[in-house]
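Hi P.,

Sorry for the delay on this. The queue was packed all week, but I finally got your sequence through. Input first:
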Amino acid sequence: MIWMKRVSLENKFSLVRLAEEGSYKAAVEEYVEAKMFWLVMTGKKIDKIKEVQLDYESYLGGISDLIGELVRRAIKMATDGKFKEVKKIHQIADDIMAELVEFDMRSYLRTKYDQAKGHLRKIEQINYEINLRK
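Then the structure:
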């Protein structure tokens, strides 16, 4: 369980020091991305992760990366002929991006946001091509 390891690391090194460690920060973002993907795939609302204390950059970075996972899911669904699922995924990604645009993202988070925008365009393209073929 990642949050158990995090708690022991926080006790040993402090949250401030951990937040500055690149590999740790990347791992926390991956956790946020995975947790949010699980919430989306199980039809639950994207919400605060209560098991651990996270900073806003981890949340925003992980949620931005979630769009890339949704692209992969949309490709899989399109390949399987599940076009209604692609449309749902497109709507979810669009809703997430509508929320992300409200944040003033700079530097590292701006890069994450720009990548998420590129991923959204891919989902839009998949949806567009499905509609053309109908």
